[in-house]
Design goal:
heterodimer; A: mainly alpha; MetI-like fold; globular; B: MetI-like fold; two-stranded antiparallel sheet; 12 helices; about 70% helix
């Protein structure tokens, strides 16, 4: 950056500070710009949108929402519900069973434990797409096409969530607590549910949000599994909207649809951003 | 892993608690993976209403996918769009992470900025692409604004231009991932012993020198991790170009990625081709993952 002489150290610092604020401001605008247009146009009527851009929101939000909900070709309300069911169940299964798996590795000593641990770490980076071919054929044989099961059950085996839980247990779950519970006569499964789970609450919250969001946003696998209109999740409906004859659409409705798909996640994020960002850092690589 | 903990020997329960994970993984991931490998050696596709195959053809699917199906073109597209997004991403993320962790700089509003830059990562990629498609359309708000302030005379047709569409995919990838990378790099920078910075400052090192000679070398393992995991993510690039171009990778297939190509074969039920492509992607990802593993274990030594 700029050259600093010893005497002008202070002003150089100020200059650096100003420069970083300018860059941060530009990035903020870049990040929020498209969402700003989204909010403005979701609240304006189609005729207003086609006349030109306005910097201020309109008052047409409710009408756009009603039009969207009453669209017979695009079951948006069902889509919201479907996305909610799939993402909710995935998040619940994923955090519970990942914690259980991590608990098995963390707390017990058994033959093959290290192999199991290494195996889970190894499969962490295998993309779901490379197994998709075998996956859809197998689901077809199980008669699970056009059901939510293929999207929900695999969440039981989530290596990344497992890894986070394991890290968290290493720092927050001393083995003495488990031993004390045993002396009190608690059985192993009871100990996990009654003693370990409450300790894991913060980790659960963060990972539940991440798993929920990942599932909510997922497009590739659901698009291969769900073909019936009333089972489709939001990303599939958006793809459908995109490939339909776009010019004939009521643009107010299109913007409203986009807004509806991202709003739930944005609201949760804004309420819990502090914990989510901490979670990102925690889940990252550490020795 | 080598450290022995004072574990209780309730061996049976260890296996019981591991069971759900391994059972589900085997059924829903491992068997499909093996099957995918198996399919890659068979000719099996639909031609009109008839199904051809499955006939065992050895490695000819792998040969055909490169020679007849232009695999390298789609690999090139994917790589170019990844690079367009990744270069600004790594530069900006390094800058921001250095600023956020710089104790002299004392930037205010850090929580606000972190919240904002991480936001696009959580947005549904398909909705985000649909949004970009509408606002960058020929008659969309961006063109209206650019014409309104006099930068353009006629609308710039983003989706008819190779550079325009690829640029938008890159821009979206950048926006979606630079916040995440910043947070990862910050975690790495905060792990550096602060006395190193203090010592350098006492010796009169300038901020740029501290960054180059202290921060960067110590950050190298995490940088390698970021580059390679981003590349693994880049190989999986799908939602953004798929929605942006309605699946056809327009203009002229210049934005069709590897996974879009895979998706096409899955829908048209060309299982031999889809299998061969999956195997290739699996192998590339595995090699990259091994690199990540070595980068991280080196850090421990």
């Amino acid at each position: 950056m700029e050259k600093t002489k010893k005497k002008s150290g202070n002003s150089a610092l100020t200059a650096r500070r100003v420069f970083s604020y300018i860059i941060l401001a530009i990035l903020t605008v870049l990040c929020l710009f498209s969402f700003y247009i989204l909010i403005v146009n979701a609240t304006r009527a189609h005729s207003q949108i086609s006349k030109g851009f306005s910097a201020l929101p309109g008052s047409y939000a409710l009408r756009n929402f009603q039009n969207l909900m009453s669209d017979a070709n695009l079951p948006v309300f069902r889509g919201l519900l479907n996305s909610l069911i799939v993402a909710g169940c995935s998040a619940a299964l994923s955090v519970y069973f990942s914690a259980l798996t991590a608990y098995a590795i963390h707390c017990y000593d058994f033959k093959g434990k290290n192999i199991a641990f290494t195996f889970i770490l190894m499969i962490m980076t295998v993309p779901t797409q490379v197994t998709a071919l075998g996956f859809i054929n197998l689901m077809d044989k199980f008669h699970m096409m056009d059901t939510f099961w293929p999207l929900i059950i695999p969440s039981v085996a989530a290596p990344a969530v497992f890894f986070f839980m394991k890290q968290y247990m290493d720092s927050a779950l001393p083995i003495e607590i488990v031993e004390a519970a045993r002396i009190d006569g608690s059985n192993e499964f009871g100990t996990f549910n009654k003693i370990v789970l409450p300790i894991m609450k913060p980790a659960f919250a963060v990972q539940a949000i991440f798993t929920f969001v990942t599932s909510w946003n997922n497009y590739f696998t659901p698009a291969l599994i769900l073909k019936k209109n009333n089972l489709k999740t939001l990303p599939i409906l958006i793809a459908q909207l995109r490939s339909a004859d776009f010019l004939k659409f009521d643009m107010g409705k299109v913007y409203m649809m986009i807004l509806l798909s991202i709003l739930p996640v944005v609201i949760v994020y804004l309420c819990l951003s502090k914990y989510i960002i901490q979670g990102v850092a925690l889940g990252s690589v550490k020795g | 892993m080598t450290k022995k903990k004072s574990c209780v020997s309730y061996t049976k329960w260890g296996y019981v608690f591991l069971l759900p994970f391994f059972l589900v993984y085997t059924i829903f991931n491992l068997i499909p993976l093996v099957q995918t490998f198996y399919y890659s050696f068979f000719e099996n596709y639909r031609s009109g209403l008839t199904t051809i195959g499955p006939n065992f053809v050895g490695f000819s699917n792998f040969v055909n996918i490169v020679s007849k199906f232009n695999l390298l073109k789609f690999a090139g597209n994917t790589f170019i769009m990844w690079v367009i997004g990744f270069i600004p991403q790594i530069i900006i993320s390094l800058l921001l992470a250095a600023w956020f962790t710089d104790l002299n700089l004392k930037l205010k509003g850090q929580r606000f900025f972190k919240t904002v830059i991480y936001l696009p990562n959580l947005i549904m990629a398909s909705a985000f692409s649909m949004l970009f498609f509408t606002i960058f359309a020929d008659g969309g708000p961006v063109n209206e604004i650019l014409m309104g302030v006099g930068i353009l005379d006629t609308p710039f047709r983003f989706f008819s231009s190779v550079g325009g569409t690829r640029g938008l995919v890159g821009l979206m990838n950048f926006l979606m991932w630079f916040g995440n990378t910043t947070i990862l790099l910050m975690a790495g920078m905060m792990g550096i012993d602060p006395s190193l910075f203090e010592a350098a400052e006492v010796d009169g090192a300038k901020p740029m020198q501290i960054f180059r000679f202290i921060t960067m070398p110590l950050l190298k393992p995490i940088l390698v991790y970021v580059v390679i995991t981003s590349l693994i993510g880049g190989i999986q690039m799908f939602d953004v170009p798929q929605i942006l171009t309605a699946g056809d990778g327009s203009p002229n297939g210049s934005t069709k990625t590897l996974i879009m190509f895979l998706n096409e074969h899955l829908f048209s039920k060309n299982y031999g081709m889809a299998g061969a492509l999956s195997v290739i992607l699996f192998i590339i990802t595995a090699i990259l993952s091994i690199c990540v593993y070595y980068a991280l274990t080196k850090q421990n030594d």
